[in-house]
Structure formats: structure tokens, C-alpha cells
Design goal:
- The protein is mainly beta.
- The protein has one domain.
- The chain contains five helices and 18 strands.
- Strands 4, 5, 11, 14, 15 and 16 form a six-stranded antiparallel β-sheet that branches. Strands 1, 2, 3, 12 and 13 form a five-stranded antiparallel β-sheet that branches.
- It is globular and about 55 Å long.
Length: 269
């Protein structure tokens, strides 16, 4: 599937599965998402990197969001409240980034981080980070707080920003009685220039209902821009309202640095 925006083209490879592991059912999807900038973006001087930033909208019918994320209170604080996006009742959104990471890029929840004997670092940048070790790019903030995300420079040969995500859940239920769950993603390509701006965004996601899992491949969400807009506040060049609400929660949040003190997130426009 391919979707074109003002900044380039998103392409996807999307699959899903339901597997029984003992008495547990693993319901999951696998999204391989790429963004290729167009010639206008690639001709920008000086060149900049591109990263994919993702917001997850979650709707659960069987258990509260608080229960799902009880081991990651910092991430839970990033969720919008039900009703923050009136057009989509029941959904709660957050910027999809790990709370902490090891120096090698392995991502950790808050509870996992506090159990580590080796140093861990707050994930303060918003660029999505692939879970496979060795594939991350360090995004530096100051001198001593590396943060991890997958990026591509527009002056590379065939630059492509990539995201690999495998969202899912485990169900202690009979397969014929899977509880409803909806995961709705909006993924935006962001120009990581001195003044960042959006290159466009797409929707994708999946729903678990009864004994079926249905996936929704990428569709257009917003156009973005190929250059920094003259009017940066113009909503025509921004992602959707739900994305921007989750972005605001991200921008406002500070994260405990387990070495001492708090650190703020790198803000999105």
C-alpha cells in the first residue's frame, strides 16, 4: 500500500496473526512502514534527517488503560483523557515511545528500568525506535543523554525513514470470546531540521472483535509540507487533532532521570 503526501510517499507491509501459546492467545500485527522523501525535500540545503513519530489511539472494552500500563506510570501520564478528542469518544491517545532505554538502545518500561543494575537513560526524543538492537540512531540532547530513534538523512543515497512495529496483546480467554480492542495509529514523517516541521502522516491499525482480528492498512491522514511553512501554525500543514493533543502531552512532560533530577522531552512542533 502507498500513500503520497506533500513531503513524500509512505509504503507499508502489514500482516497479523492469532496464535495459541498454551492457554494464552497472542493477538498481534506486524507493520513495516517506510517513508521516502520526494525530490523537493531531498533538495533542501542544508540537508536534514527524517524520523517517524507515532501516536497510538487505544480503546479497550475489557480492562482500563490504567490496568494495562500499571508498570509504566510515566507513560500512563502521557495519555490523553477520554473526551479530549470529542470526535472520537472512548479513545485515549499517547505518543508511542518507550520511557527508558539501556545504552545499547534496548527499550524499558519504568518498572523494568528501576530493576536494572546498569545505567538506563530516559527516552526523551519522540522518534520511533525499532526494537532490534544495532539498528538505532542516537539523537543527542546535551552532552550526556543519548536517546534512540531511527532516522534517515535526506542527502543519503535513496533515503528512507523506517518503522517496524508489532503491536498486540495476550488474552487469557477462549479464542471464540476475544474481547474487543482497537489500536489506531497515526504515523507522521518529521523533518528534524533546526525548526522541525511535518512532511505528512498516515493512519493504520487493527481491531480485535469476537474471534476475528481485522487490520486497517495505511490511509491518508495529513499532507504536511515539503518546506518549512511560512505560517508554521497553519493547521493545513499539521497532523490531526488527536495527534496534536498527544503531542502536547508529550511536550509538557518531564521524565525522572534515574541518575537524579528530571529531564524534559524534546518538543514536537
Amino acid at each position: 500500500m502507498a500513500v503520497t503526501t506533500n513531503g513524500g510517499t509512505f509504503t507499508s507491509d502489514f500482516s497479523n496473526s492469532v496464535k495459541k501459546i498454551g492457554t494464552v492467545y497472542q493477538v498481534s500485527a506486524l507493520m513495516r512502514l517506510s517513508f521516502t522523501p520526494n525530490d523537493q525535500v531531498k533538495s533542501v540545503d542544508p540537508p536534514f534527517a527524517i524520523g517517524l513519530v507515532q501516536v497510538l489511539g487505544l480503546k479497550r472494552y475489557d480492562v482500563s488503560i490504567e490496568e494495562v500500563y500499571r508498570d509504566d506510570p510515566v507513560k500512563l501520564q502521557r495519555f490523553t483523557a477520554d473526551g479530549d478528542v470529542p470526535e472520537l469518544p472512548g479513545f485515549r491517545y499517547y505518543l508511542d515511545q518507550a520511557t527508558y532505554a539501556k545504552p545499547d538502545g534496548t527499550q524499558l518500561s519504568e518498572v523494568e528500568a528501576k530493576k536494572e543494575s546498569s545505567p538506563v537513560l530516559p527516552q526523551i526524543n519522540p522518534v520511533y525506535c525499532k526494537l532490534t538492537r544495532g539498528s538505532e540512531t542516537k539523537l543527542w540532547h546535551g552532552d550526556d543523554l543519548p536517546s534512540y530513534g531511527n532516522t534517515a538523512k535526506v542527502d543519503e543515497l535513496n533515503p528512507v525513514a523506517r518503522l517496524i512495529d508489532s503491536p498486540g496483546r495476550y488474552l487469557l480467554r477462549d479464542e471464540s470470546n476475544l474481547a474487543d480492542c482497537v489500536m489506531s495509529f497515526e504515523t507522521a514523517a518529521v523533518a528534524l531540521a533546526p525548526r522541525p516541521f511535518y512532511l505528512g502522516s498516515v493512519f493504520w491499525g487493527f481491531r480485535v472483535e469476537s474471534n476475528e482480528i481485522s487490520r486497517h492498512d495505511i490511509t491518508w491522514a495529513s499532507n504536511g509540507a515539503a518546506r518549512l511553512p511560512e505560517n508554521e501554525a497553519d493547521p493545513a500543514f499539521k497532523p490531526t487533532a488527536s495527534f496534536l493533543r498527544a503531542r502536547s502531552k508529550w511536550n509538557e512532560q518531564t521524565v525522572p532521570n534515574l541518575a537524579g533530577g528530571d529531564v524534559g522531552h524534546i518538543a514536537l512542533p
